[in-house]
């Protein structure tokens, strides 16, 4: 037990022994290094994923828009004050990194972080929730006992022991992230390879596709590999024998995630947590191998940390030194105080709570949709993928009876309200207030939202017959207007692939499932000149609106739909109906043929094989010397856009490491530059008041300055030509 876990079984035999185990003195080096790395990553994260560089776009100061806070009474501060709040968060993260005024810095960070987090549910994700948890944990830990400014000015804190529970809580948290994520991936959709099927097309999986087909790469590598790693990583990191190889795999896994997903600092934050599972003195042993001349700027390597009042020491160790009981208490605490007991109690309660929360959805039933719970604390990472085919918002003026429609997403910048009943309720109430400004009083608002989750049929997620403004919703009761997910139809997904593979590249298909008694109203564009409806299951009645004719279709029957007209599909069977639209966009097909002909002609011109005369207006375009020619022909516009896109792709693929690094650096420079300048403008406004609007507009325009691709390319070439010289680039 001691060799495997670092403690003996008898240490768990009584409360007193457990108390001493959790408060056992431990080297602070690993915890101090994690504190530094976490604070540094948060300093980088705040201008990026937290949105400091785009607060004016995010909160739209002065505009009455629909927002989605956890609690409806939460409102964003005025814009300049929001920038000040982010400055407090940033300095809190910086203080955590440096270990400067550590407790105050932690409080500055977590108070502002959780306020911003609760302010907008649409930005919630698992890793943002994890950052807040770690910030809270660090607040009550002694993470400033190693390589910190506090330790430099306070000798009692410098290189002092920390209690074992500091490591226990962090290790347990990371174990839960891995393990619960693995348990959630035991879902049939993940095991069947439907959750992230598109990932296998990414270039990162090219080596695997040399061995497997695309389908097998998705099933075995993406889904199978992700499941096994999440289930086992938390365990294998604990043991000396398996830790080295596990570190290699999790490092590769998180580096891949950094390229596959736009998830900010999360992969690097998880990499920073990995050394927590190593021996606590690993930084000392690592930095002791560096040259002596660097010791002044590196973390200390001295061993034998000093005693700390936060830990409990064995009495036997003190008796061997000939100290009395009173003297020993002054040197090293041997008896548990309230501080030690609170630390042990917190550890037990916190770990139990973290295991419970991902399965607490039977309490917060109002937040359950097709997936359970408030998105963010369930650790069901990447288990569900969604696509939206159709969204319609209908309002009815209760006084006049007038009916109208709203553009989906009007009065808001978010799109996540389409999948969550709690957000849909907030959005409907907000829309009712907004419509009152347009002389539409007490409107009834309904939503017809069609969603496919994990490649199932497109189906309604909410009842389109319900007025959401007046509909009941409670966080602790099931949502009465949520439509059930038609899981019984999941086996059809295997047939979807067969149907899609049987079609040519120009033919598209959409699979629909609907409930008895409901109707889908659809419009077939004139571009879709060859659209047909095929019934797969159940019975439907198709009404063509202009012709005012009705057609009844049963299983395996189909009909051609008129283009440029509305039609309605009623489900008249007792069971849900399933049908599919098969269509060809004839306009796109014609455009593609003409564009392909232009590319073919261009290739012949470049090869010198074209013998027929070319119209003058095409010569410059086909030769690639079009410059600033104003092209009005839509076919030529499509050709030029595609040509530029292909050239950009080729340029990026052929770019050297130096060019890629330079482009990346320039992009990040302007992001942090805007964060700094907009924050400076906001601080000036708070101190001295608003300047004239012309001056403010000029300042914001200067902050919005960005580098174009052409400028970046020119500067990169300049850097390449002057590798051996010292060059200064004026930005």
Automatic annotation (TrEMBL):
Keywords recorded for this protein, A-Z: Acetylation, Disulfide bond, Endoplasmic reticulum, Lyase, Membrane, Transmembrane, Transmembrane helix
Keyword Disulfide bond attached: yes
TM regions (residue ranges): 83-116, 219-239, 259-279
GO cellular component: endoplasmic reticulum membrane
A molecular function (GO) term: gamma-glutamyl carboxylase activity
Domain HTTM-like residues, every copy: 23-282
Top-rank taxon: Eukaryota
Cell location: Endoplasmic reticulum membrane
Catalytic activity, EC: 4.1.1.90
Entry-linked Pfam families: HTTM, VKGC_lumenal_dom
Primary localization class, coarse: endoplasmic reticulum
Keyword Transmembrane helix: yes
Enzyme category, top tier: lyase
SUPFAM superfamilies according to UniProt: RmlC-like cupins
Entry-linked InterPro entries: HTTM-like, HTTM_dom, RmlC_Cupin_sf, VKG_COase, VKGC_lumenal_dom
Catalytic activity field: 4-carboxy-L-glutamyl-[protein] + 2,3-epoxyphylloquinone + H2O + H(+) = phylloquinol + L-glutamyl-[protein] + CO2 + O2
Membrane topology label: Multi-pass membrane protein
Name of the protein in question: Vitamin K-dependent gamma-carboxylase
